[in-house]
Amino acid sequence: MREILQEVIAAADRGEHAALASVVSTLGSLPMSRRARMLVSPGGAQIGTVGGGCLEAEVHAMASVAMKQGSALLKRFTLTETKAGAEGLNCGGTVEILIEPVGAALDQASTDVYRQALAAIEARDETVMATLIATRQEADGESGEVTIEGRCLVGWKGLRVGAGRLGGDPALTGQVVEEALAILGQDRGSLKRLEGGDAVYLETISAPPVVYLFGGGHVSLAVAGVARAAGFRIVVVDDRAAFSNSGRFPEADRTVVAPMETALAGLSIDRNSYIVAATRGHQHDEPVIEQALRTPAAYIGMLGSKRKVAIMWQRLRERGFSQEQLARVHAPIGLPIGGDSPGEIAVSIVAQMIQVRRS
C-alpha cells in the first residue's frame, strides 16, 4: 500500500494521470489477495497486481480506458466455469473491482487524503481510508460506471481529513466514521452499501509489519529473504558489525550494531513488530527475550531446543516473569514442518509470523 500511495501522490504532483484498481469485495475461491490493488500509468506500466492472468489483463485495459475518459468503474467478475470460456478463469468465486482515475484526476482535497494516509504509514499509525461510490445498476444488475463523490481518512480520534461529500455532509460523514472505527486496527477492507444506492469502500491502512532479527547468522539471512517476500520490513541487530550491515543483509531496511543486553532500548517496538531471537548463543538470546517480554510485540520467537527453553524459562521465572508471559514466546520457533536447513527453518518461522499476523 505504501508504494501505491507514494506513486498516486507523485503522479498528482507531476500532473500525470493514472488509474487505480482495487479489489473491494470477494466471495468464494479467488486467485488474488482480498486486499489486492494495481496502479496503472499512462504508458501501461503497473505497480501491484489483482491476481494476474487474463483477469488482470482485462482490468488493465479497463484502467487505461478509465484513465483516458476520467470515469470510474465498479466491475464484478464471476470466476466460475460458466465464465471460463470468456474470461479463462474457473476459481469458483466472484470479485468486485473498483477502477478509478487518480493522480492528476484528483482534486487537492482528495490528494491531501492520500498524503495524510502516507504520513500515517510513515508514523506507524493506524487509519482507515473511506471512498464514497455513487453507483447505478446496469441492465444485467451489475454495477457499471460509477462516480467517486468523496474520500476521508479516519484515525482513532475520528475524522482526520475529508474531501467531497465525506467532509461536506456531516450526517453521512458521521455514519462513515462510525463504520471506519469499527474496523480500525484490523487488516481488512469492506464494501458497505448505503441507503439511496451509494456505497463506501473502507480500507484499513497501517505500516508494514517489521521483523527484528537479533543475530546476523545463517538463519537470519534466510529469514530476511523469506520475510521480505512476504511483505515484512527487516531490521537486523547484532553486536558484531561484520554480521549486521547492508552488504550482508541487502533486504534489510536497517541494520543495528548494539549489545544484546540493551539492543531493544533504541528500537520502536509496537504491536506491529515481530521479534526473532537467533543469536549465536543462549547467553545472548536470554537478554533479548527478557527485553522483548516487556514490549507489546505481536510475535516473539526464539531458536533453541526444548532443553534450552526449559532452563531459560526457569531463570526468567526466578526474575519474576509469569508462565502466562513466557507463553507469549514461540520456542522452539516456527511451525512444526520438520525443517532442517536454514532455508527450511526460515520458511517455518515466516509461516508462523504470517499465521499470527492474519489471525
Describe the overall structure:
This protein is of the alpha/beta class. It folds into 3 domains: 1-106, no CATH class; 107-207, no CATH class; 210-358, NAD(P)-binding Rossmann-like Domain (Rossmann fold). 35% of the residues lie in helices and 29% in strands. The chain has 11 helices and 16 strands. The protein has helices at residues 2-14, 53-69, 81-87, 108-122, 165-168, 170-183, 218-229, 282-292, 306-318, 323-326, 342-358; strands at 17-27, 37-40, 46-49, 72-79, 93-103, 127-134, 145-155, 158-164, 189-193, 198-205, 210-214, 233-238, 254-257, 273-277, 299-302, 329-330. Strands 1, 2, 3, 4, 5, 6, 7, 8, 9 and 10 form a 10-stranded antiparallel beta sheet that branches. The protein has a 6-stranded parallel beta sheet with strand order 13-12-11-14-15-16, sandwiched between helices. A hairpin with a 4-residue loop joins strand 9 (189-193) and strand 10 (198-205). Helix 1 runs antiparallel to helix 4 (108-122) and helix 7 packs across helix 11 (342-358). It starts with a helix and ends with a helix. 41% of the residues are buried. Residues 82-88 have low confidence and may be disordered.
